[in-house]
Amino acid sequence: MKRLAAFLLLAATLTAFPQTGPLTDSQKAGHLLDRFAYGPRPGDVERVERSGLNTWLEAQLRPDSLPEHVGGDPPVDPKSRPGRDFLIRRKLLRDVESDRQLQELMVDFWFNHFNVSSNKVKAYQVYRYERDVIRPHCLGHFRELLGAVAHSPAMLEYLDNARSRKATVDKNGNRVPGINENYARELMELHTLGVNGGYTQHDIEELARVLTGWTTKNDGDERVFTFDAHRHDQDPKQILDVSIPAGGGEDEGEHMLDVLAEHPSTAHFIASKLCRFFLRDDPPAAAVDRVAMTFRQNRGDIKAMIRTIFQSPELWSPAAYRSKLKSPLFLVVSALRTLSATIRNPRELAETTTRMGMPLYQCEPPTGFPEREDAWLSAGNLLARLNFCTDLAQNKVNGTQVRLEPLLTYVAGPNRDRSAMYQTTNSLLHLLVDGPVSNQTVLSLQTAVQDPNIDYPHLIGLILGPPSSSAAKGC
Fold this sequence. Notes:
By secondary structure, the chain is mainly alpha-helical. It has a two-stranded antiparallel sheet with strand order 1-2. Strands 3-4 form a two-stranded antiparallel sheet. The protein has a two-stranded antiparallel sheet with strand order 5-6.
């Protein structure tokens, strides 16, 4: 109980001072890596400082020009279907080890935006959905990504459009409804226009009629997209003041994807989500408007929108620095990168994110995982963060190993003992928090190190775990 009380006390008191002056070059580099990557590895901040922020970003926007460096990335046997464990292993290895950090971040962003769940769709379909739909388009154009999702067997089956068909008449002359509105509703509400995007229930019903016949079929061992004209409602339709004449077939759906992708509400909705992701939970209206304008002027070019966010003064304001709590996945990956971890078996890491409320690939609602930080701020979640970081720093996470010796030698010298721990606290704070911290923070940690049961790995875990640390709150 004393350990629990100490953890909760540190979680409540370990807070950073608000940044009052302009960010230093080092802070800008760290801030860039905390927003456009899964946090820095040792030496990354200095490398970005030397190369320049813009140079680093432009290289990240061309991921094919960068090596992957994912040494443990498991190969895929073309004769077998990857299961959920494979999905999780591949994701964590890429997020932690890949040099293509912005690409991995955007894969996570768009997968969550166009969420499907392995609890409803087979894991091998989710694997192909991420590999063939999300990843190739995550830095491309929104309309191409939207179209790839709309043709994906995983999405069509997850939101039940694969079984949607026009109404029929049974042998007794009774009308038998067959249209399923799930995908049409989420296509408007979650994927494009947003909940306040100006559509009505009638628009949803009409869009569902447009999408009848967009289904799946077997092709060998795989499910693939097909358009079944016999299932399609051929009658005329009216959606968002757009008249669709009878008999358009599959082209009706393609036309409506164009309409939705080019709608001003879609530009604003996508801009809002990107600004919430990169800036803060309640992004400034001026920043959202600029990104929305970039969307409209560049026909949904995702790279152009990211550049606009990068150039936003709001991103580099003192108020934005270390102002965003990381999701459980972001926390775990950031801590692994901070401590140069080697992953042999990611199962326990996945169980960690599950305990924090984020079971990877298993979010059942089409809304995806929460976007706002207050969803991750329960007492149980904070305790799980602290426990994970202290266990990780002490090499108690099964299947994962960290190397603290280079870090400790650097800050405390080769012949360190407990007497040096008190003086070392400030050095560890500087390296691991990388930002201004309050006197209360320092006092809390210096009080903690007087406990004879706390060693250096434990101390590092306490610094990494609370919300203000570089691993937990630096994005």
